[in-house]
Amino acid sequence: MSQFEKTNEAMLAVTLNKEKILSKAGAMVVYEGNVNFSKAILGGEGLFGALKRKLVNERESLMTTEGSGTVYYASDARDITCITLNNETITLESDSLLAYDSTVNTDIEFSGVNGIVSGQGLFTTTVTGCGNIAIISDGELIALEVTPQHPLHIDPDAFVAFKGNLLRDFILDVNWKTMVGQASGESYQIKFSGTGVVYIQPSER
After folding, report:
1. Cα distance between residue 37 and residue 30, in whole Å
2. Per residue in 85-107, pLDDT tens?
3. How far apart are CA 71 and CA 4, in angstroms?
4. Per-residue confidence band for 52, with pLDDT thresholds at 50, 70 and 90
5. Is the dihedral of CA 44, 45, 46, 52 positive or negative?
6. From the candidate CATH numbers 3.30.420.40, 3.40.50.300, 3.60.160.10, 2.30.42.10, the one assigned to the domain spanning 3-200
7. What's the rounded Cα separation, in Å, for the pair 161 and 133?
8. Are 77 and 10 in contact (CB under 8 A)?
9. CA distance 89 to 174
């Protein structure tokens, strides 16, 4: 498994020892060592997942990096958070995934019509297995715990990712501001219930 380490809030350093990772195409800033780059045809989801990605017009292009050396990644100076998965699944907005080990599997998940109505989008990406991933966000990523006694309501624009045994519902909050045409942009909420962790950004896209 490769080594993921932040050099600062907006720069990721990945150390490879005859290993392979995938990343956003164009996110590489600089590298040293014997490293090769190529367009990722299958991504981390295999042939069926790649066909699904094409079918739903998933717009995020991926790049494969392999060899031995250190590669530095960044994306529009956005904040970076490194997470290590240990036989876990994390679900996140597709454009928030900066880089990940080839040891994990990815897939496209249907969010339902409510997703696009709320502005979150029809599809999200799931990452499953053991390995490192790097997530980008507008501001420092915040992890909030969800328990059966304490569900969480989130503005869809602030949502980035979640993991654990969580149920996700889209809720229409019709209040007096909505009725008189003074909606704050928060008429739709995502409710998370169960047990797990939700990651949010301190910004509304």
Report:
1. 12
2. 999 999 998 889 999 999 999 98
3. 10
4. low
5. negative
6. 3.60.160.10
7. 12
8. yes
9. 33
